[in-house]
Amino acid sequence: MKDVNLGVLLIDTEFKLIDISDMACRLLGLIRERVLHLPVDEIFASVPPEHRFVERTVLDGVVVRNHAVSWTHNQERYELLLDSNVLRDQSGRIVGAYIMFKDVTNLRSLEQQVQRSDRLAMIGQIAAGTAHEIRNPLTSIKGFLQVLRKTFQDQGMDKESGYTNVMLTEINRINELVNELLLLSKPKNVSFEEVDISQVLRDILPIINNEAILHGVVVHYEASYPMPKVIADRELLKQVFLNIGKNGIEAMVDGGRLTITERVDREEKRVNIDIHDTGPGIPLFVIDKIFDPFFTTKPEGTGLGLSVCQRIIHDIGGSIRVSTKGFGTTFTICIPYP
Ligand SMILES: Nc1ncnc2c1ncn2[C@@H]1O[C@H](COP(=O)(O)OP(=O)(O)OP(=O)(O)O)[C@@H](O)[C@H]1O
Ligand SMILES: [Mg+2]
C-alpha cells in the first residue's frame, strides 16, 4: 500500500474506509491517519456528489472497469482511470469493496493534443482547397483589370485608372491572404538550408523598425555570438519572426519596447529567440486559443499569424512557447541545431 503507484481504497460493508494507499492520499489531499475508519461519505463531504467517484453502489456489486474520471486538487486537474469491484470472503459473501485508480493525466493530454492536430490538419486541407480555388479566378480578374487600366491610361481617364489601381491593390491583399492559407496546409517550394539566424534577424530588423516607429515602439536587438546555424527555410523563418514581432508591436497601443534576444542552449542543442513586448499580456482564458487558426482579437486580424508560425517551426522540429505576466509577453522560438 505504501509503495504502489496506484490509488487504492478499501471499503467495508458499512462504507467505511479500511485502508488507503499513499498515492491516493496525495492525489485526493487526504491524511491517512485522519481518514481511516471514517465513513466515506464523511471523508468526501466537501466534494459535490457528481464529482465523487467512490459511490455506495460499489457494495451492491456494480463492477467498474477503466472508467475515466477527472479530479481537481490544489488547482491541478488529474485524469484518472478507475476500477472497482466487491471483495468476497471464501464463502462468497461480500465483505467490502476496492477502488483502484491510475493517474493518466499525461496520456489524456497527449490524446487531446493528437485530436487537436487532427483537427488542424483537416482545417488545413479545407483551407488549401478553398485557397486554390480562389486564386484561379483572381488571376484572370487581375489580368483583365491590368488591361482595363492600360486602356484607361491611354485614353486619359485618370479617375478610372485610379479606381483600377485601388482594385489591383486590394486583389494583391487577397492574394497574400490566400498564400498564407496555402502555407497552413502544405508549404510550397520550401528549401531547407543552413541558416544563420542572426543574419535573418538583421535582414528583417528594418521592416520591424518601420512598423515599430508607426506605433511609437522602440526595438532592441540583443545578438549572441557565435550562433550555430540551423537547418530551415530562410524565407519562412523571416515570416515567423515578422509575425511574432508584429504581434508584439500591435499589442503595445501606447508605445513600449520590443526586445529580441538570441540565446544558445548548448546542452539541449537549441537556439532560442525571445521576442518580448511590454504590452498588456495575454489573458489566461485567451492563451489556449492563440495558436488556433482564425482566432483573433483584432478587428482587422485574420488570426492566421501564429498558426502559420507554429506550423513552420514544428516542421523543423522546434517549438514556440509563450509566457505572459502582467507586464508583457515573451514568445520564445526554439529551434534545434545539428
Ligand atoms: N504579444 C502579444 N500580446 C498580446 N496578445 C497577443 C500577442 N501575440 C498574439 N496575441 C493574441 O493572439 C491573437 C492571435 O494572433 P495571430 O498572430 O495568430 O493573429 P492576429 O495577429 O490577430 O492576426 P494576423 O496575424 O493575421 O494579422 C491576437 O489576436 C492577440 O489577441
Ligand atoms: Mg498576428
* Helicity range: 40-55%
In this entry the ligands are: adenosine-5'-triphosphate, magnesium ion
Please report which band the strand proportion falls in: under 5%, 5-15%, 15-25%, 25-35%, 35-45% or over 45%. Answer: 25-35%
Assembly form of the protein: single chain
Mean pLDDT: 88
Low-confidence stretches: none
Largest sheet: 5 strands, antiparallel
CATH class of the largest domain: Alpha Beta
- Based on DSSP secondary structure assignment, what is the total number of beta strands? 12
Distance between the termini: 47 Å
CATH superfamily of the largest domain: Histidine kinase-like ATPase, C-terminal domain
User: What series of H and E elements makes up the topology?
Assistant: EEHHHEEEHHEHEEHEEHHEE
Shape: elongated
* Computed CA radius of gyration, to the nearest angstrom: 29 Å
CATH topology of the largest domain: Heat Shock Protein 90
Class per helix and strand makeup: alpha+beta
Strands of the biggest beta sheet: in what spatial order? 2-1-5-4-3
CATH architecture descriptor name of the largest domain? 2-Layer Sandwich
Write the layout of secondary structure elements.
Layout: E1 7-12, E2 17-20, H1 22-28, H2 32-35, H3 40-43, E3 64-73, E4 76-88, E5 94-103, H4 105-154, H5 158-185, E6 193-195, H6 197-214, E7 217-222, E8 230-232, H7 234-251, E9 256-265, E10 270-277, H8 284-287, H9 305-315, E11 319-325, E12 328-336
Parallel strand pairs: 7-9
Antiparallel strand pairs: 1-2, 1-5, 3-4, 4-5, 6-8, 9-10, 10-12, 11-12
Helix pairs in contact: 4-5, 5-9, 6-7, 7-9
Bound molecules: adenosine-5'-triphosphate and magnesium ion.
